[in-house]
Structures are given as structure tokens and as C-alpha cells.
Recover the amino acids of this structure.
């Protein structure tokens, strides 16, 4: 069972998580990821190393938890007036953020310290929530829209694959191509 599931939300637990996450981010910028240790994080956060080990298990799981929090979108997707514009802008921004060196590092950390797949699922849920907002707006405007899972399969999954395994020559054109391919297929099939 993941240690994170045993943590009580709110109160002291939330304060500890916030101070530890802040310490990790600060130390990573000061000493780098490779030099980071649990005792350094504990000292900076004002907790004991045993608190970190009890809650996160090890440094890898702590870095994973911090990465998932850093990958959480900060705002709802912008409304550009129609589905194609909204989804294209979102895909381009997603690609730009995730393919950046910090984004790729956060993705790797999120996956490396995730023995039960919870963090990967949370990252996927973040993308799905953003897409749901875009698709709901399209439906409100009486536009035809694919389902969330179709967008995940046809846009997000290929973007993530390329970000992780084939990043060379990856740019906004690829994101636009995926969205156009999805929406043009949807129009042709009458959905």
C-alpha cells in the first residue's frame, strides 16, 4: 500500500507536506536534483528525516509527489471561441510545458517514484480534466465534440510518447497536426 494513502489531509499533515515540497523545490534549484538528500530536505523543511521516510518512503517517492504537484495545471484552459482553437491552443501549451527540460524532469520523477501507478493516474487525470473543460465549452456552443477518452488517445497519448521517447524535432506543428487529424476525422464520421 502506498504511504501517501495513509496520510490525513489538512492540519499539520498539510503544513508538513507544504514545507517539505517547498524545501525540495528550493534545494533542487540550489544544489540540483542529483545532490539532493532526505536529511537536507528535512533540515530545510524543519522536520525530522523519519517524518519524510514515514510519509514518502524514500527520496524517489518524495520527488514523485513533488513532481505530480508541479504538473497540476494552474488555470482552466483559455477560451478561444471554438473547439478547434481551444484544443489546439491547449495541445500546444501542453507540449511546450511537458517537453521543456523541467517538464520532462517532472514527468520522469512522477513516474520513477510511483510503484503503484497512482501518480501516473493523477497526471492523466489532470489532462483529462482540462480536456473536459474544453469539450464542455464546445458542447455549450452547440459544437460537435469527441469524448474525453478519444482526445486522450489521439492527442495526449501521442504527445506524451513523443515527449518521453522521441523528442527530436517535436514542435507545435505536431500538436496542431494531432488536433486537426482528430477533429477532421470526427467531422467525416458525422460525430
Amino acid at each position: 500500500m502506498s504511504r501517501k494513502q495513509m496520510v490525513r489531509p489538512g492540519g499539520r499533515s498539510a503544513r508538513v507536506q507544504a514545507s517539505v515540497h517547498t524545501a525540495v523545490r528550493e534545494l533542487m534549484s540550489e544544489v540540483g536534483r542529483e545532490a539532493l538528500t532526505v536529511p537536507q530536505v528535512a533540515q530545510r523543511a524543519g522536520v525530522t528525516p523519519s517524518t519524510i521516510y514515514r510519509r514518502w518512503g524514500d527520496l524517489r517517492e518524495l520527488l514523485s509527489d513533488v513532481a505530480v504537484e508541479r504538473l497540476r495545471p494552474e488555470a482552466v484552459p483559455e477560451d478561444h471561441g471554438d473547439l478547434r482553437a481551444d484544443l489546439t491552443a491547449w495541445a500546444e501549451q501542453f507540449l511546450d510545458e511537458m517537453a521543456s527540460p523541467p517538464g520532462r524532469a517532472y514527468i520522469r520523477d512522477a513516474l520513477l517514484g510511483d510503484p503503484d501507478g497512482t501518480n501516473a493516474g493523477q497526471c492523466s487525470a489532470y489532462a483529462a480534466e482540462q480536456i473536459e473543460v474544453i469539450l464542455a465549452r464546445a458542447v455549450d456552443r452547440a459544437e460537435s465534440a469527441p469524448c474525453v477518452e478519444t482526445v486522450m488517445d489521439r492527442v495526449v497519448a501521442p504527445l506524451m510518447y513523443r515527449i518521453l521517447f522521441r523528442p527530436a524535432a517535436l514542435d507545435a506543428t505536431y500538436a496542431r497536426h494531432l488536433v486537426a487529424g482528430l477533429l477532421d476525422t470526427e467531422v467525416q464520421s458525422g460525430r
Notes: The chain is about 70% helix and 0% strand. Residues 100 and 163 are 9 Å apart (CA to CA).
